[in-house]
Design brief:
The complex is a heterodimer. Helices cover 25% and strands 32% of the residues of chain A. Chain A is α+β, with helices and mostly antiparallel strands. In chain A, strands 6-7-8-3-9-10 form a 6-stranded mixed β-sheet, sandwiched between helices. A 5-stranded antiparallel β-sheet of chain A has the order 13-12-11-14-20. In chain A, strands 15-19-16-17-18 form a 5-stranded antiparallel β-sheet. In chain A, strand 4 and strand 5 form a beta hairpin. The radius of gyration of chain A is 25 Å and the shape is elongated. The two termini of chain A are 45 Å apart. The radius of gyration of chain B is 24 Å and the shape is globular. Chain B starts with a helix and ends with a helix. By secondary structure, chain B is mainly α. Classes of the chains: A alpha+beta, B mainly alpha. Chains A and B meet through strand 6 and helix 4 of A and helix 10 and helix 11 of B.
Chain lengths: 358, 282
């Protein structure tokens, strides 16, 4: 089922959580809403679910497969919502939790007890908790509780699955495992899924498309590769992964930094002037000798070799710190020592020019 | 070994003994002894004299009136308590703190005043006095007044137990239930009530004990008409003033027994509540 959100604004008193936000989600897509706290991602999810209603300014609309559901209560939207802290019914067993959505249906639509039991068993098998049916939420681990919450949401055969930071309260290894499991589940069920997270690794790994949000607006909605390698704004570039920011000047399609020059063909048509130049740590190269005039002089401050790439922190002549990620082999080759003087060049850089000039 | 004990952060033994024995003597002197005296005095003349106190018709009227007042105020305050706790815990609205203060009002006010307000409202010289007289209705010096006064003094018990609990539990489970398609009633009965049942029972026990034992407020509105507008506590007072000591203590032993049962139930429920809160921390 496709979802479309059009021009939705949501304020809580004097605080604006969403400002004229529009988003389209295709049928069967897995989309993550990524952003820092306060960016509006949870509010957007809850408005899609119907747990919040957008401001009534005559413009905000929410469409499920073309149908405007903005005025419908959450119970009527047939959404499966998984809460951040699971919200399992603490006085019901796992089986009763999962069966809840089916048991509260009006008599005419309620399946027989036998059918409900079968469905619950099916779901228990899906979440790999067949032996835990009679346990209570307090007897389960965090990861198990989250899987039960998911099964409970799936029991009502929702048209869309909405997850609010589902793995936030779990430790790293469990989170990893569940992430992979969720993606596989999504591929199997092919249900439209929207997931809210502040964990960028999660968002990039799991999603078909990532929607980066900041301060009540959507900064960029694109594939993980696109969002990482071609960020649409400074915020997106800064938020995803690590980035070095240089204050330099752009002139004739080139960025001039303190000793280092990088080609930035996108800015060819722009006027000369100061600009912030963004370079990712893995797009920088270190040499012992000055390869050309276009390199930055810096001293090695700290080396962190533990990882698939070695992370080197360098200090420039003006005191600014630069992060360089070198493939481990290259790092071994160079055999860098702390305090050494080296030369840094950039293979690629991004400059974000403001759309308007004051 | 002994040097290890000294370095531990622990109160010296003499201090522990002093505090514990002080607490025990307090409890014995002010609680256990009076309670024991009630039963001792009641049974002083033997079982026969004890049971004679229960043969008085006025005594049974008093017991009946106590049960009626309690029987009406308990369910009303239960419903009110749940409604108020729900509104305060799950909704945001202006005047929330005012409501919270008002709920605590009966605790702050002297029981005499609690009774007096009804006399001022419904008494012959009160606001609604003339209207009531016109319609041949009587509130003060009759059962309705007693019921009203009992409701007032037992007002806060259920609400005060539920409010912090429901605030702590939040509304996540209710939201989950609604997102799964449950309507308001289903959510309330299947999700909310099971989560608050022990605290609810606790509030009800306290409410009950106070309702049955209330003296001050009921005394003001009752009129002390023997056999008609006396509750059990008032009847005990009358018996004692007539020097009918054994009968007075016999009746009092009923209230004392109620007190003991209340304490036992209360302890059990406190233990239950503690268990639940420990589980929810996992």
């Amino acid at each position: 089922m496709s979802i479309e959100v059009c021009n939705v604004t949501k304020t809580f008193g004097s605080y604006t959580a969403l400002r004229d936000v529009s988003l389209k989600v295709d049928d069967g897509e897995l989309v993550t809403l990524l952003g820092p706290s306060g960016s509006g991602k949870t509010t957007l999810l809850r408005i899609i679910a119907g747990l919040e209603i957008a401001d009534d300014d005559g413009r905000g609309k929410v469409y499920f497969q073309g149908e405007n559901v903005a005025k419908r209560a959450v119970g009527e939207r047939q959404v499966g919502f998984v809460f951040q802290h699971y919200a399992l019914f603490r006085h019901m067993s796992v089986i009763e939790n999962i069966a809840f959505g089916l048991r509260v249906r009006p008599r005419k639509q309620r399946p027989s007890d036998k059918v409900i039991r079968e469905r619950v068993m099916e779901l228990l098998k899906l979440i790999q908790l067949e032996a835990f049916g009679n346990r209570f939420p307090s007897q389960l681990s965090g990861g198990q509780r989250q899987r039960v919450a998911l099964a409970r949401a799936l029991a009502i055969e929702p048209r869309v699955l909405l997850l609010d930071e589902p793995f936030g309260a779990l430790d790293a290894k469990v989170r990893q495992g569940l992430r992979t499991w969720l993606r596989r589940l999504h591929d199997e069920l092919n249900m439209t899924t929207i997931l809210v997270t502040h964990d960028q690794e999660e968002a990039l790994e799991v999603a078909d498309r990532v929607v980066v949000m900041n301060q009540a607006k959507i900064e960029q909605a694109a594939s993980p590769a696109e969002v990482f390698h071609n960020p649409a704004s400074e915020f997106v570039m800064d938020f995803l992964g690590n980035v070095n920011v240089f204050r330099g000047r752009i002139e004739g399609g080139q960025a001039l930094l303190d000793g280092m020059t990088v080609a930035v063909p996108d800015t060819k048509g722009h006027a000369t002037g100061p600009a912030n130049v963004y370079v990712r740590p893995h797009e920088l190269e270190i040499e012992r000798t000055r390869a050309s005039d276009a390199s930055l002089k810096a001293h090695v401050a700290r080396i962190n070799p533990a990882g698939s790439s070695a992370k080197i922190a360098l200090t420039c002549s003006d005191g600014a710190e630069v992060q360089v990620d070198l493939p481990y082999e290259r790092f071994r080759q160079l055999n860098l020592q702390t305090g050494e003087l080296v030369y840094v060049t950039a293979r690629r850089a991004r400059v974000f020019v403001p759309e308007y000039q004051i | 070994m002994s040097s290890m004990k000294k370095t531990k952060a622990r109160d010296p033994v003499w201090l522990q003994v002093l505090l514990i024995s002080t607490a025990i003597s307090f409890v014995t002197l002010f609680l256990l002894m009076p309670l024991a005296v009630v039963f001792f005095e009641a049974l002083r003349g033997g079982i026969g004299a004890y049971l004679k106190g229960f043969q008085d018709r006025a005594a049974w009227q008093a017991i009946r009136l106590t049960l009626i007042a309690t029987g009406i105020s308990l369910p009303l305050n239960l419903v009110f308590g749940v409604a108020a706790a729900w509104a305060i815990a799950k909704f945001e609205f202006k005047g929330k703190s005012v409501l919270l203060t008002l709920i605590d009002l009966p605790f702050a006010v002297s029981p005499i005043i609690s009774g007096l307000i009804y006399v001022l409202m419904f008494g012959l010289q009160g606001w609604l006095g003339p209207w009531l007289k016109e319609h041949d209705l009587q509130v003060i010096f009759a059962t309705p007044g007693i019921v009203l006064a009992t409701i007032f003094v037992t007002f806060p018990f259920v609400a005060r137990e539920l409010i912090p609990l429901m605030q702590e539990q939040g509304s996540d489970e209710e939201q989950a239930a609604i997102s799964l398609g449950a309507n308001g009633w289903q959510t309330f009965w299947r999700v909310t009530v099971p989560n608050i049942k022990w605290a609810l029972l606790y509030g009800v026990i306290l409410c009950n004990a106070r309702a049955m034992g209330e003296f001050g407020a009921v005394s003001v509105v009752s009129g002390h008409i023997r056999g008609k507008t006396n509750t059990l506590p008032l009847h005990i007072e009358i018996l004692y003033n007539e020097y009918n000591v054994i009968a007075a203590f016999a009746m009092a032993s009923l209230l004392a027994l109620l007190g003991l049962v209340t304490i036992v139930l209360k302890s059990f429920l406190e233990w239950k509540l503690k268990q639940e809160s420990l589980e929810s921390l996992i």
